[in-house]
Specification:
This protein has 200 residues and is an alpha/beta fold. 38% of the residues lie in helices and 20% in strands. It has one domain: Pyruvate-ferredoxin oxidoreductase, PFOR, domain III (Pyruvate-ferredoxin Oxidoreductase, domain 3), CATH 3.40.920.10. The strands form two sheets. It has a three-stranded antiparallel sheet with strand order 1-3-2. A hairpin with an 8-residue loop joins strand 2 and strand 3.
């Protein structure tokens, strides 16, 4: 998982790790926060399998890249295995180098070209639009987990059991709706992507 500080990536990766353990997998996880509190890059490595010895995923070995922001998706696409799955939220959060005028944010077709150079199995998800439709952009992480849940062999009830452990009770209903919205909007994505196995 990759994105920008404030998007709830660590919470999402914690929830994924727990639901995977509930499903019976061995799980290892590591977060790299960098300057996350200042809007910097945030990356979570999560490995799932029968037996996992290290959380870190080597460059070119990830089965799935779940990117919460477009530029971060392009930045981390090299970690994806050739032909792996990339789900990229259609949102641009300008880094300091861009907002200061020192650099330009890549055009959409440039980002798509970078993704295509690694895999044809990518999907640009309308996560930001769904979150804004729900009235709270902070639900993005649950929406992205909803997309992801449709391509992982984990029972829906396990997701519903785990999510309440990571969301304050006053926001639980909204976050469950966000997760459900991600799943509901996933058929277009699933039509392009085949289910994958776990990372050994």
């Amino acid at each position: 998982m990759a994105g920008v500080g404030g998007q709830g990536i660590v919470l999402a990766s914690d929830a994924l790790a727990e639901v995977a353990m509930l499903a019976g997998w061995d799980v290892k996880k590591s977060d790299a926060l960098g300057m996350a509190q200042r809007g910097g890059s945030v990356v979570s490595h999560i490995r799932l399998g029968d037996k996992v010895y290290s959380p870190m995923i080597e460059k070119g070995k990830a089965d799935i890249l779940l990117a919460f922001e477009k530029l971060e998706g392009a930045r981390w696409i090299g970690h994806l295995a050739p032909g792996g799955i990339a789900i990229v939220n259609d949102q641009a959060i300008l880094p300091l180098s861009v907002s200061s005028g020192a650099e330009a944010y890549p055009a959409d077709d440039e980002i798509v070209g970078i993704l295509k150079s690694r895999t044809e199995r990518f999907f640009v998800a309308p996560g930001e639009a769904i979150a804004r439709g729900l009235g709270n952009i902070r639900t993005l992480n649950m929406i992205m987990l909803g997309f992801l849940s449709t391509i992982l062999p984990i029972d829906l009830e396990m997701w519903r059991e785990c999510i309440p452990r990571y969301v304050p009770s006053r926001f639980l209903e909204l976050n469950l709706r966000a997760f459900a919205e991600g799943r509901a909007r996933a058929p277009e994505m699933v039509a392009r992507l085949r289910p994958v196995g776990t990372t050994r």
